[in-house]
Known about the structure:
mainly alpha, three-stranded antiparallel beta sheet, 43% helix
Amino acid sequence: MDIIKALEGAKTKDELEDLGIEHLGVDIDKRKSKEVMRAELLAEAEDRAESAGLSDPKPPEELPPELQKVPKGRMARNKTTGRIMPWTASMAKFSHMEEV
Length: 100
């Protein structure tokens, strides 16, 4: 993935535009910010790498042991988002929280 490394290392809009035209065949709008241009070109390069089967599947990241533990005790659920978190006494006053 030399093009991805080159896109990440480009310092100017002109370099990004040249890399986009030369390697991806994409003429990018230079009125956008440099980071937006870089993000668009990186997305295009990654899409092409995936479609060509060149990208390596990344293994899922493992959580540290302290985050893998299941909390004990009472739990609460947010009715609007469904997020579950440890119950605290201050949550009892919120109508959008319910104990599970």
